[in-house]
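Continuing the batch. This is chain 6 of the set; chains 1 through 5 are on the previous pages. Same settings as before, nothing changed between runs. Recording input and output for traceability.
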Amino acid sequence: MNELAHPLPQMTPPAAMIRTLGLIAAICGTIIVAAYQGTYRAVQENKRIAVERGVFRVISTAKSIVEYVALPTGTVEKVGAGETAPAGAIRFFAGYDEAGRLAGIAAEGAAKGYADNVRILFAWDPLSRKVTGFSVVAARETPGIGDKISKDRDFLANFPLAAEVAADGKALIHEIRTVKHGTKTQPWEIDAIAGATITSRAVGRAINDTAQALLPRIAPHLDQLKEKS
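Output for chain 6:
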């Protein structure tokens, strides 16, 4: 048999392979960046709409809302929709009733749950100094277990929840915390759902962490916020 009749295929030079792979990577990168930039505004707008709907849901008497930031300097300022908050600022919403009076404060909180971060939006009543309720912004908890936080009547009955700023204005008088199911004894405790304790604790941490940082900043400015300007 004559081996010269079947010559071996020529190998592609390494430099050519690198150039081709580089070109493919550049094209894919350009497509990804273009898709991200092309959809960014729409995604952000959808998020803004979802959060605003959440604010109206947790502050049921609100007819209008104004977005603020609480700054590390101790002041509060209005921010426009989609406007970037300054470093260290905490974004929150003031909800106003039909007469333009402050109906409640809403803010986002997040904490690690069973599968991922549980993001919630909670409402705080400045008159009673209580967290009156919450809604889930995003969660990937186990269906049928973790999603009980928004359905379980006993869990939702934890609210309103005591959340009053201490006299020195530095933190809440009592830490908001989730306790084992059936052991709640204090108005600032959250009675966990049996079988969904991790998600229940995420709700408690999310509220406590944000409330501890936000409420001491805005408590001195409630007169400024009490009427829509």
